[in-house]
Amino acid sequence: MTFEKLLHARLTVSAAAGPGGRSEGDSGPTPETLEGVRQAIRTALGAASEADETVARALRGLVADHPYDFGSDNYASLKEYRETERYEGTRDADEALKLAGDGRSLGDAELTRLNTLLAANKDNPFFAERFCRATPTRTASRS
User: Fold this and answer.
1) CA-CA distance, 115 to 98, in Å (whole number)?
2) What is the pLDDT of residue 102?
3) Do residues 124 and 88 touch, judged by C-beta distance below 8 A?
4) Which of 33, 64, 68, 135 has the fewest CB atoms nearer than 10 Å to its CB?
5) Are 58 and 34 in contact (CB under 8 A)?
C-alpha cells in the first residue's frame, strides 16, 4: 500500500470516527502499518533528496558556465541532464585516467589538463565512481 493510500485511509477513518480520531475499541495502527508508513516516508525522502541533488548540480553547472545567460544549455528533462552528466563524467574520467594512469611524470600542460578535469568534475558522481574504481590501489609499505 502506498503512503498516499495509507494517509487517505487514515484520514477517512479519522473523519468518520469523530473528533478524537478513533472509535470505541480502536487500538490504533498496528506496528506493521506504522513501519510501512515509515518505510514509505524514507523512500520518498530518499527520492526527493536525489532529485534535489541532481537539480542543484544542473543549476550550478548552468550558472558556473554562463553567469549572465541562464538558459544556454537546454535539457528536456532531469533524465536527459543525468544522461549527459554520466556521459561527460565517464568521458572525462577516462581522459584523466590516461593522464594519471601510467605512472610517468606529467609535463606542465598534462598536469594542468588533469587538474582542470578533476576540478571540473568535483561534483560529478559518475566521474568520481569511474575514476576511483579504475585507479589502482597502492599499499604503503612499512619499514
Assistant:
1) 13
2) 66
3) yes
4) 68
5) no
| pLDDT tens sequence across 58-104 | 776 665 555 555 555 666 677 777 888 888 999 999 999 988 876 67
Angle at 30 between CA 26 and CA 35, to 5 degrees: 150
Burial 55-64 (b: 16+ CB within 10 A, else e): eebbeebbee
Q: Are 80 and 54 in contact (CB under 8 A)?
A: no
Examine the pLDDT at 20 and tell me if it is beyond 70.
no
User: DSSP 3-state assignment of 113?
Assistant: helix
Say how many residues make up the chain.
143
Whether 97 contacts 134, CB under 8 Å: yes
Return the C-alpha cell found at 14: 479519522
CB–CB of 126/90 below 8 Å?
yes
Contact 127, 94 (CB under 8 A): no
* Helix, strand, coil shares, percent, the chain, to 5: 70, 0, 30
Q: Answer yes or no: are the C-beta atoms of 3 and 42 closer than 8 Å.
A: no
